[in-house]
Design a protein that fits this description.
Homodimer. This protein is of the alpha/beta class. It contains 18 helices and twelve strands.
């Protein structure tokens, strides 16, 4: 057996590709080939594309000098996907290609954590569709060389948003955890499905361990609870309605909505819209979701809930389910879970707690009291991809009664869930889900938990709350800002208005409100165009547009908070 050096391998691959190109041209000239691949019949090189490829080659060579990881300079311009594994001679080229990909990712990660870089390089949709500096999202019939694929990888990151940047505050999920990232890479490499133990043994066991840990933290007994990881908090909330309905009316599974009476769900004014969407999807109907009033802090008022339940019963309908929120999306409010649990027990309603955002506080001995009463819930949604910083997506649906999830969703597909397998088929968890195929979302969380420990998550979450308190106090000292409500943050949400100098002389009233409503959108537009930072805004109830700041990014420090406030003033002082 002859082992060739890397350079010999490259030369051979390029030589083979050149010979193949020559043969194609000869076939075309002889009339034996109907059409050449697009790359062969091009009238000349695309100058923009060549510029991008040349730039990529230069960056590869620079990275070669600086990298402490073993890497290779390879000319990928004549190497294609078909040359990689499982091609018989593809092992070395695969290694080199993946080294280049890792180099692109490491470069991006370094830029993400560098506060001096932009959060985004914004372009409008039509610009991306038309192509930018040789970056095209159009698909071709013929394969592109791996050099172009590497350029595409780099450009995809270049024109996206750095959600791990210390000045990215736009969503509840932000940050870039390195161990979690490693977990996501490994998950993609394993590329398996979570429906049976036989094809995902380690991941299935890990999911059981993580769910048991979360159930223990909530306060449920180890043997009585159940759960599953789902594709996001909205689906976890849908599971809660699905299971609550099945618990009361198991005939729904076979006979449908015609077999049961009119059922009513209750949510707060500040609840997530996903419960209404679940009602629409499950055939209950959004008109059968009653919105319960909240106090000025955004908490459900228990007396209003009870009054609505009594009214529904008088109408001959069945009050079925209450969704209480532990950490509302906008205000970060916690509903009074103990009082809501008392009412649910009194009237025999299913109590769900949507702790998608605030569930992480259960890991903090300093702040977990804000979820007091969650242990009395029938089900809980908890998203580790929010406050715990796990890479998207990672959402757990937890239910206190063992076996209910399985009974509700099980269909016993014979090609997957054979009862006579050689192992304990209780670990074939796929029949608990409404999906068939299910992504492995648990490993990155398991790996992060191993790396941080529960105390590490606690430290992280406490720091987020400290940053929220710092922002709250800063806003109270600055004359150009007003708080939407003057109360210390319960979670990491801080809501405020920026008041431009031109508005400070106008008395409060409809005219001022109309102008103020336009301030946040205009500042946000300028912010995105410049790419310096990102924070969200929205109206809520009777309040005109205001900024909503949230902290869930481990990279954020107090100077980043100061920068945001100064940047808002810089961008909005002339409004």
């Amino acid at each position: 057996m002859v082992i060739r050096s890397g350079k010999e391998m490259d030369f051979q691959m390029v030589n083979n590709r050149t010979n193949a190109d020559t043969n194609l041209k000869m076939q075309h000239e002889n009339g034996s080939c109907d059409v050449l691949p697009d790359k062969q019949i091009s009238t000349g090189p695309d100058p923009l594309r060549q510029k991008r490829l040349s730039s990529f080659q230069g960056e590869s060579e620079e990275r070669e000098k600086d990298s402490t990881i073993e890497s290779f300079v390879t000319n990928f311009s004549n190497i294609f996907e078909s040359d990689l594994l499982p091609n018989q001679n593809g092992e070395e080229l695969t290694e080199r290609f993946l080294h280049e990909v890792v180099g692109i990712l490491l470069s991006y990660i370094k830029k993400t954590y560098d506060g001096k870089t932009k959060v985004l390089d914004f372009h409008h949709p039509h610009q991306l569709l038309e192509g930018l500096e040789g970056f095209s999202v159009e698909l071709s019939d013929q394969p592109e060389p791996l050099e172009q694929i590497l350029v595409d990888c780099r450009d995809t990151l270049k024109y996206g948003v750095k959600t791990g940047h210390p000045r990215y505050f736009n969503q509840l999920s932000s940050g870039l955890d390195i161990v979690g990232l490693a977990g996501e890479w490994l998950t993609a490499t394993a590329n398996t499905n979570m429906f049976t133990y036989e094809i995902a043994p380690v991941f299935i066991v890990m999911e059981e361990i993580i769910l048991r840990k979360m159930q223990e933290i909530i306060g449920w007994g180890e043997s009585e609870a159940d759960g599953i990881f789902s594709p996001g908090g909205s689906i976890s909330n849908l599971y809660s309605v699905l299971v609550a309905r099945y618990k009361r009316y198991p005939e729904i599974k076979t006979k449908g909505m015609a077999a049961i009476p009119d059922i009513i769900l209750f949510v707060s004014e500040h609840s997530h819209y996903s419960v209404k969407k679940a009602a629409a999807v499950l055939g209950i109907g959004m008109d059968n979701v009653i919105v319960v009033k909240c106090d000025e802090r955004g908490k459900m008022i228990p007396s209003e809930l009870e009054e609505n339940i009594i009214q529904v019963k008088k109408q001959g309908k069945v009050p079925l389910y209450v969704s209480a929120t532990a950490g509302t999306t906008v205000y970060g409010a916690f509903d009074p879970l103990v009082h809501i649990a008392d009412i649910c027990e009194k009237y025999n309603l299913w109590m769900h707690v949507d702790a998608a955002w605030g569930g992480g506080l259960l890991l903090s001995r300093r702040h977990s009291h804000k979820l007091s009463g969650i242990e009395r819930a029938n089900s809980v949604t908890w998203n580790p991809h929010k406050l715990m910083g796990v890479p998207l997506q990672c959402s757990a649906f937890l239910v206190r009664e063992k076996g209910l999830l399985q009974a509700c969703n099980q269909l016993c597909a014979g090609y997957l869930f054979q009862p006579d397998k050689q192992y304990d088929t209780a670990y074939d968890t796929g029949d608990k889900a409404i999906q068939c195929g299910r992504h492995v979302d648990v490993f990155k969380l398991w790996l992060m938990w191993r790396a941080k420990g529960t105390r590490g998550f606690e430290t992280l979450i406490n720091r987020f709350l400290e940053l929220a308190e710092y922002l709250y106090k800063e806003l109270k000292t600055r004359k150009n800002y007003e708080l939407v409500f003057d109360a210390e943050p319960e979670l990491t949400n801080v809501c405020f208005w920026y008041i431009p100098p031109s508005l400070r002389k106008i008395p409060k009233g409809p005219e001022r409100e109309k102008i103020l409503h336009q301030v946040a959108p205009k500042i946000k537009a300028r912010m995105i165009e410049e790419g310096t930072t990102m924070v969200s805004y929205q109206p809520h109830g009777n309040h005109v547009n205001f900024f909503r700041m949230v902290f869930s990014n481990p990279a954020t420090k107090k100077p980043d908070v100061d920068f945001l406030l100064e940047e808002i003033e810089r961008l909005g002082k002339d409004l």
